[in-house]
Amino acid sequence: MRISAPIAYILLYAALYAAFGVASPFWPRFFETRALSPQEIGIVLAAGMFTRLFAGPLVGMFADQTGALRLALAICAALAAASAAALLWAHSFALLLFITVIQAASLAPTTSLADALSVNAARPRLAGKEFEYGWIRGSASLAFIIGTLTVGQLISGTDVTPIIWLNFSFLVVAAASTALLPPVVARSSPLTGGSLIGELGELLRISRFRMMILVTSSMAAMRCTTRSPSFGGVLPGSSLRP
Prior knowledge:
This protein is 68% helix and 2% strand. By secondary structure, it is mainly α.
């Protein structure tokens, strides 16, 4: 089955960001129901963020060098979905930490891979008119908002499993939707000769990139130190009460 490129990308982005929306604001609440202490929840969330710093660039560069962007995105989304499902049977701190790190590593490259694919299919057309990339990202933002609002109505003080089931379902849809994307155009001059470490070093030498890392890290740190009534001010989003 093949559909137009804009519709395929809207489906991919909507599913991917809906998966983020139903889960990311509520992870502290989920871990709280697993009887983790505030300190343990902080470790779990920090481990996931730390893992993303390395997993995203490494998987992205590997996929770019091999030209297997769609395959890499499908595998990452499927592995993230499996990790989400595994959380239903995880109750110990060690197991929750392990699964969270696996899911974080799987999710980290998904947005950059999706962006690389959508840029590769530059200026797709819908009904004979050019279809701008902004509409694709706009649908992603809307899906995130709807996902967050929806799961907030479904969870209760004693049952937060809708977080897992919806996260799992949307990630499965995202993985499946990669099959609908248009074929990737081959590079006219493939990358050669550079190592992953060397390319990462070149990236870090760009002053604007370093500034972006500094700003986003500062924002994340400020978010993590926001006071929360539930834990006395240690975790973002944990003000959701039972």
